[in-house]
Design goal:
Elements lengths: L14 H10 L3 H13 L3 H12 L2 E2 H8 L3 H13 L3 E6 L2 E6 L2 H15 L1
Helix pairs in contact: 4-5
């Protein structure tokens, strides 16, 4: 069996800290939405797409070539990323270009990468 996290040796509730946590804790719907957002990052293909877009705005053709995937597979993942407000798109003639939705997404990717490289 796996090891469990260490526990306190004696029961002692720090009520003021518990009260602060309960006051600051987001509601269940918000926590659910946050967990769902992080699930999107749980797929390496989507993370590859986000990282590619971290470097530059790209069209589906470019993403397909860079990641050695079909345009259909890329398009499917981009739809999921768009639904979760992680990427945005813009049309220019016959091309559709994708980019990261905002600076929050840039920060999430940069912080995540920094964390695992520590």
């Amino acid at each position: 069996m796996g090891k469990h996290a260490e526990c306190c040796d004696e029961q002692c509730i720090h009520q003021e800290l518990v009260s602060k946590v309960l006051t600051d804790l987001p509601d269940e719907d918000t926590l659910y939405d946050l967990a769902e957002l992080f699930k999107v990052f749980g797929d390496s293909t989507r993370v590859r797409i986000l990282f590619a877009l971290f470097e530059s705005e790209l069209c589906v053709c470019d993403l397909s070539e860079a990641l050695a995937m079909t345009q259909s597979a890329i398009s499917h993942q981009l739809q999921l990323l768009r639904t979760n407000k992680l990427v945005k798109s813009r049309r220019e003639g016959k091309q559709v270009y994708y980019s990261l939705a905002d600076e929050h997404v840039v920060t999430i990717i940069a912080q995540g990468l920094n964390h695992i490289l520590e």
